[in-house]
């Protein structure tokens, strides 16, 4: 019923092949991961992705303000700017998710009737944001094309989010992208708010 096939073919597949198919954003691989596996790392993955994003922003902030010796780890740990960037990244992520939920609830209220529907969609969206982990290699292997790489990572995460919404709620392609669009509008609204407050985002 969940995979929309008589049998989920990914049951017999190696986890590496399942991961490759998920990276390729195949809907059936997403269905297998969301419905036929017991993965409970969504919370930890979300925190780790937010840490990656906060680190990237903090590093860009450090580059623009001052040069600090990379070996001075104790001074790094005391940098409150990192925690501020983590808080801002968390608020942006939350506003993005709230924008998606509001849009889906407004357009198709029957899809999100129960608390379990909300929780399943939230888990799917958090798991599908795994592409943010690519921020770390993009920072480590810094080169002239880093801004382009970051843009590709953002697009990849949005495509993954779209597939997660499609698979979880069994929708066509249009509504998930509409929900993501409104999520981005709300997220950018939060960014504009922080910039008006005079915070570096």
Automatic annotation (TrEMBL):
<keyword id="KW-1133">Transmembrane helix</keyword>
<dbReference type="InterPro" id="IPR007290">
    <property type="entry name" value="Arv1"/>
</dbReference>
<dbReference type="GO" id="GO:0032541">
    <property type="term" value="C:cortical endoplasmic reticulum"/>
</dbReference>
<feature type="transmembrane region" description="Helical">
    <location>
        <begin position="85"/>
        <end position="106"/>
    </location>
</feature>
<feature type="transmembrane region" description="Helical">
    <location>
        <begin position="175"/>
        <end position="194"/>
    </location>
</feature>
<keyword id="KW-0472">Membrane</keyword>
<dbReference type="GO" id="GO:0005794">
    <property type="term" value="C:Golgi apparatus"/>
</dbReference>
<protein>
    <recommendedName>
        <fullName>Protein ARV</fullName>
    </recommendedName>
</protein>
<dbReference type="GO" id="GO:0005789">
    <property type="term" value="C:endoplasmic reticulum membrane"/>
</dbReference>
<feature type="transmembrane region" description="Helical">
    <location>
        <begin position="148"/>
        <end position="169"/>
    </location>
</feature>
<dbReference type="GO" id="GO:0016125">
    <property type="term" value="P:sterol metabolic process"/>
</dbReference>
<keyword id="KW-0256">Endoplasmic reticulum</keyword>
<comment type="function">
    <text>Mediator of sterol homeostasis involved in sterol uptake, trafficking and distribution into membranes.</text>
</comment>
<keyword id="KW-0812">Transmembrane</keyword>
<dbReference type="Pfam" id="PF04161">
    <property type="entry name" value="Arv1"/>
</dbReference>
<comment type="similarity">
    <text>Belongs to the ARV1 family.</text>
</comment>
<keyword id="KW-0813">Transport</keyword>
<keyword id="KW-0445">Lipid transport</keyword>
<dbReference type="GO" id="GO:0032366">
    <property type="term" value="P:intracellular sterol transport"/>
</dbReference>
<dbReference type="GO" id="GO:0097036">
    <property type="term" value="P:regulation of plasma membrane sterol distribution"/>
</dbReference>
<feature type="transmembrane region" description="Helical">
    <location>
        <begin position="118"/>
        <end position="141"/>
    </location>
</feature>
<dbReference type="GO" id="GO:0006665">
    <property type="term" value="P:sphingolipid metabolic process"/>
</dbReference>
<keyword id="KW-0443">Lipid metabolism</keyword>
